[in-house]
Amino acid sequence: MVSNYLDKIKGAIILKFKFYINESNAMLAFWITPDGKVIDCGVKKHIDFVVENPEKFNITKEEIKKLYEKYNEKIGTEGKARQDIILNVIKNGFIRVRKYKNSITINANNFNSRTKKILQSFAKKLISGELGIKEKDRYIDVNISTEVGRGSSEYNLDDISKGAHLFEEDLKDDKQYNVLVDNSFC
């Protein structure tokens, strides 16, 4: 009973902390899995989540270690090995999201209909607060970069939440995607 009560208090503190972080305009990090689950990294670096949970990202600890050794870098540092690892994770279908003070950057392997629909669901939930934080500026700039085609597109969060980005090309995938919050990584 005491443990259950402490879990509730801990959860309330975490939510309050997330709200405080968002109010202070700190940088926030998210991973979105290939099936649309959101991994809230908080203020942690994306690479830290991959290094701590490699199996969740379809990579092994040994592969991570070899890449850092290849570039003579310390595991977890932001260098060439990190770049290779992040790109491999993105090529495996993960979407990287970083919220800065005045913008959001998104890195995806490609900007196909699946990615667009996942991003629409993510934007709606970020605006509504369903992710545990609420973006107050629905018109914040969003830059989406892709590996395939090495393209870059700029929108605002409101446009993405309303699906404005969905109609740029013919959509062959009519499946609906719903972004889910996955706190098991945290």
Calculate the mean pLDDT score and round it: 80
Shape: globular
The level of helicity is: 25-40%
Helical stretch count?
6
The side-by-side strand order for the widest beta sheet comes to 6-5-4-3-1-2-7
Q: What is the radius of gyration computed over CA atoms, rounded to a whole number of angstroms?
A: 17 Å
Strand fraction equals 15-25%
Distance between the termini: 23 Å
Largest sheet: 7 strands, mixed
SSE string, helix = H, strand = E?
HEEHHHEEHEEHE
**Number of self-contained structural domains:** 1
Poorly predicted runs of 5 or more residues: 8-24, 170-174, 176-186
Secondary structure tally: strands: 7
Class per helix and strand makeup: alpha/beta
How would you describe this protein?
Strand 3 and strand 4 form a beta hairpin. The C terminus is likely disordered. This protein has one domain. Helix content is 39%, strand content 19%. With 186 residues, it is α/β, with parallel strands linked by helices.
Short description:
39% of the residues lie in helices and 19% in strands. The protein has six helices and seven strands, in the order αββαααββαββαβ.
Keywords:
globular; disordered C terminus; alpha/beta; 186 residues
Helix/strand layout:
Layout: H1 2-23, E1 28-32, E2 37-42, H2 46-52, H3 61-70, H4 80-91, E3 95-99, E4 103-108, H5 113-128, E5 141-146, E6 152-156, H6 157-162, E7 180-181
Parallel strand pairs: 2-7, 4-5
Antiparallel strand pairs: 1-2, 1-3, 3-4, 5-6
